[in-house]
């Protein structure tokens, strides 16, 4: 089984749209496929790969502090040493209380408490939703609870579960829609992947973030290829992307032109490759998919 992750370093450059279309094409090519959405803060891939929910699993991947008031004597040491200001003093009750939204579960309060009245415990901070898409393959989606921390840990839990199911179903490809940005979730998404598809567009912000996400890909020594979306948007910046790719030895998988069928397909909740199979964007994505299957997956 090959794990292929699609990352961008920046939101809004077409990562999820490309993932949905590649999933459609790979499955049409008789590949045993499984798709994963690791944008746990705002998962949208399942909107394009509609299907029925099979299972939902709660995830405990974050820790928070809890006070045992039977032991607490109200000394206030926990309030004094909490650097996150997550422990406040209730002057009416004359005792500390934890504002759990701010609590990072660092454990300092438990260490300084002379009565050992504070414990750090795992809490549910997200879920994993498994659904079967209308195209037949399974889609695993990670969802972080609103206001919760630990998105990187949720991504790892999602990938572990997806790998477990994929091996059980003897999948050929585990296609991972990575999160935007270059923080812990992106690092967790790239970790363990056999191949990374980088997607960008010819704008200053997109090129800057492409360079940042590539540093993560390079750190893990993950082979990679580059897709340039909205390729005819700005010729000079497209040239800069080609220079960067040549300098770093990154294979150019292809260009996707500006195409109005893409926003229309997104509005309908359908991968562009199905919505408008003969559009300029779809023709380009087909060539990109063929190159990935032929040069990397050996099909």
Strand content: 25-35%
Distance between the termini: 13 Å
Shape: elongated
What CATH first level of the largest domain would be assigned? Alpha Beta
Total number of distinct structural domains: 2
Question: What do these coordinates show?
Answer:
- With 299 residues, the protein is α/β, with parallel strands linked by helices.
- The chain folds into two domains: 2-60 and 125-296, 3-Layer(aba) Sandwich (Rossmann fold), CATH 3.40.50; 63-123, Alpha-Beta Plaits (2-Layer Sandwich).
- Helix content is 37%, strand content 26%.
- The protein contains eleven helices and 13 strands.
- It has helices spanning 15-28, 45-48, 77-81, 108-112, 151-168, 184-190, 204-219, 235-248, 261-268, 272-275, 280-296, and strands at 2-7, 33-37, 51-59, 62-67, 87-90, 95-98, 118-123, 126-133, 138-144, 173-177, 195-200, 224-229, 251-256.
- The strands form three sheets. Strands 3-8-9-2-10-1-11-12-13 form a nine-stranded mixed β-sheet, with helices on both faces. A two-stranded antiparallel ribbon has the order 4-7.
- Strand 11 (195-200), helix 7 (204-219) and strand 12 (224-229) form a beta-alpha-beta unit.
- The longest helix has 18 residues, at 151-168.
- It is elongated, with a radius of gyration of 22 Å.
- The model has no long low-confidence stretch (mean pLDDT 94).
């Amino acid at each position: 089984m090959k794990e292929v992750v699609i990352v961008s370093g920046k939101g809004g450059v077409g990562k999820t749209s490309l993932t949905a279309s590649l999933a459609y094409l790979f499955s049409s090519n008789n590949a045993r496929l499984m798709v994963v959405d690791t944008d746990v803060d705002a998962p949208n891939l399942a909107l394009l790969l509609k299907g029925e929910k099979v299972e939902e699993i709660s995830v405990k991947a974050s820790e928070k502090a809890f006070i045992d008031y039977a032991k607490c004597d109200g000394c206030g040491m926990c309030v004094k040493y909490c650097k996150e200001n997550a422990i406040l003093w209730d002057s009416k009750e004359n005792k500390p209380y934890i504002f759990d939204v701010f609590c990072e579960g660092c454990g300092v309060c438990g260490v300084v408490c002379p009565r050992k009245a504070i414990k750090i415990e795992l809490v549910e901070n997200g879920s994993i939703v498994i659904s079967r898409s209308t195209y037949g393959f399974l889609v695993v989606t990670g969802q972080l609870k609103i206001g919760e921390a630990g998105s990187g840990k949720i991504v790892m839990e999602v990938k572990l579960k997806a790998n477990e199911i994929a091996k059980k179903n003897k999948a050929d490809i585990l296609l991972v829609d990575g999160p935007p940005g270059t923080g812990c979730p992106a690092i967790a998404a790239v970790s363990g992947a056999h191949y990374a598809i980088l997607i960008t567009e010819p704008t200053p912000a997109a090129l800057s973030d492409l360079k940042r996400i590539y540093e993560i890909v390079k750190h893990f020594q993950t082979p990679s290829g580059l897709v340039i979306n909205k390729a005819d948007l700005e010729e000079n910046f497209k040239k800069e992307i080609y220079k960067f790719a040549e300098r770093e030895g990154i294979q150019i998988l292809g260009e996707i032109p500006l195409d109005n069928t893409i926003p229309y397909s997104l509005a309908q909740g359908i991968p562009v490759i199905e919505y408008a199979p003969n559009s300029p964007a779809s023709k380009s994505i087909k060539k990109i998919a063929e190159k990935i299957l032929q040069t990397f997956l050996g099909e």
